[in-house]
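Example 3.2
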Amino acid sequence: MSVQIRFLGTSAAEGTPAFYCDCPVCVKAARLGGRNIRTRSQVLINENLLMDYPPDTYYHMVSYGLDLKKVEHLLITHSHEDHFIPHDILMNASPYNAGTIHHRIQCYGNKKVAGILKSHAGNGDCNMDIHAVVPLEEFQAGEYKILPLRALHDPAEDCLLFGVEGLHGRRFLLGNDTGFFPDDTMERIRGLRFDAIALDCTLGKDRGGDNHMGFEDILEMRKRLIQNGNACEHTQWIAQHFSHNCGAVYNDAQTILAPQGFTVAYDGMTIQI
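Structure, written as tokens:
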């Protein structure tokens, strides 16, 4: 049984085109439209596991058929507002939700994310169970095995990457908002093979590695992951989480990365593993 992965949003914090911006990438993206338009990053696994909750979640709901009523598990990578809007998450409960409440949402994040959610919920029942997860310690979320891994991003909190294993052992690794994977993450996943790996490409034509990655960085990161035993010839490699500062719209990134064996993610893109 395959696992369906849908990239609902594929941009960094500003979106593309970005607020107030008339840089060449934003102007070109607005002119070309289509896959060159990017909203804030969010990934849906099958129909019941959602990864991150950006400000554009409502747009994803009305544009791509995201059925939030079917979401049972919510994974939050970190507390930055382009990935985590707690007020919108809490609208799943009364009085905002005046319809049928089908189940309690299980929300997983680092200590900071869990604390923010609990603070927003106050003493009321938010129709959600909030779990603070520990980096590198696997846990079960319904039919999924979830492996939270440490990202190289904001030192003020444990920013997370997530490995997701579905039924029949199919594995997906979401690696956005990170530089080169930290040593403890690489050691934890040594020899663990993934069917699809999505890597941060925020910087595009620029080099990085210590907070985000660009085109050359993800090629290097792929080499490291292959050497680490995390991929085989059938692994799908995806570039996602693009900033408008990356120097390339979708069409440009496709020209650069497709010959290197990377799929350039676009909003609404679906893959199967």
